[in-house]
Amino acid sequence: MEEQQYRNALPQGFGLLEYQIESVLGKPGGFGITYLATDTHLRQSVAIKEYLPSDFAVREGRNTVYVRSASYEESFQWGLKCFIDEARVLAKFKHPGIVRVLRFFEANGTAYMVMEYQKGCSLTDYLKQRRILTEEELLAIVLPLLDGLQELHLAGFLHRDIKPNNIYIRSDETPILLDFGSARFAVGQKSRSVTSIVTPGYAPLEQYDNEIKDQGPWTDIYALGAVMYCTINGEAPPAATRRVMKDPMIPAVKIGKGKYRKSLLQAIDWALQLSEEDRPQTVEQWHSKMLAPTPQVISTTNVSQSGYRRLHISYIGVILLLCAVTTILGYKNHQFRTERKTDVERILNETEATINQEQKARRIAESKLSIERKNRIKFENKYLTAEALLLEVQRFEPRVVLQQQVSNDFKAKKYYDVTRVAINDVLNVRVSYGSRQHAIGVITSTEKCIEYLGELHPVKNHLWVKVQYKELQGWVNSYYLTESHEDCKGEKNIE
Predict the structure, then answer these.
(1) DSSP codes, 386-409
(2) Of all helices (H) and strands (E), which one includes residue 121?
(3) Which of 93, 337, 377, 424 is 20 to 30 A distant from 302 in Cα terms?
(4) How far apart are CA 18 and CA 46, in angstroms?
(5) pLDDT, tens only, 290-308
(6) pTM of the model
(7) Beta-bridge mates of residue 105
């Protein structure tokens, strides 16, 4: 890891509980500083991240952190709470692809997160040595990260800042995700003065609006898709805001044609769709597309060219035969030779016409094959989306068949718990189905026993269900509900 000094950083040799600060790691960001330190008890290196948002806090004296003015106090305390909550969540994960948090503590007017120290280099520096990666090198990095991301998402947690600088390649070539951005994003919602909330090129469109709630696994999938794009192209895709009106991005299927499997390139382009609804909704769905085998299609072009060569050889034989006939007939009178010459020209013209028809038929066959390939890709994408939506419908109605709208009467009540909603976030209840509909209320991330009212409606690749929460009735995205195993009774949801 690159070492730098920083004016707001703790000095070398500073004692922080049983840890001794050695140096600053990397380039300090607007949200905090990461140090290389030594655990004096265990005598091993650790990385310590200090909460120090430079936009509204500063270190005075040797160690204590203060807010710049009283007007920043609320934002600073909110960010401090989010930083600690993030540390608590990360400490629960023991995955080789996710940075391991060993402990956290408060001191010097701020908080600290102690993590395992990793030897190696960032993916940014790794790519400086190679510029672009082969398919084998790319998958060796991406697949372990996908496995780690899936664990995060299943626990209702997002990274929110995936980029080459936050992917570390260890000495043994294995990857790990560092520097989560969830706490920084939460602070950004409180105070727009926090810098570097998004990284252009890697942040999807929904992250440019601090008020937007439509973030989920698809947000991290966009960012990792942008990282993959960078590894095959040598540079990141254009910022999402530049792609809205007239998209200048060259698709991955064009950049990597002939160098990578087509299904892998299509998976990258799928992840980089501007609309969150057009992207893979889960890591599992994206992973399946990424590793899908590329069908081996017999090239009609080659077949047609082979047929053309055979026709061309026959054509030469005909010419030779006609030349022989002409030589023999040369002994005849002039009129006879003239008649035979006319016959030869006629046969030559007919042969040329036959060849032209064959070439035209080959072009038509190639065009039809191209259209069929495009249609097959569209069908596969629609099939995967429909299959995922059907499985989602069956979580609520096991025997129902997916239609444009489904509604049944139910004898027994069904209850669901809120899931996949980040800590300190809420689930919006809409007046009607669809993420663009007006929100009429919210449900907290820890709420259980939400009554399902027996109405559901698919919108693109999302499923919306109608629920009863206390005295509130409305529609929510089914992705955030899971069947309740509590002893739910009607009165639990009624004040």
Answers:
(1) HHHHHHHHHHH-TTPPP-SSEE--
(2) strand 120-122
(3) 377
(4) 11
(5) 887 765 544 444 434 444 4
(6) 0.57
(7) 112
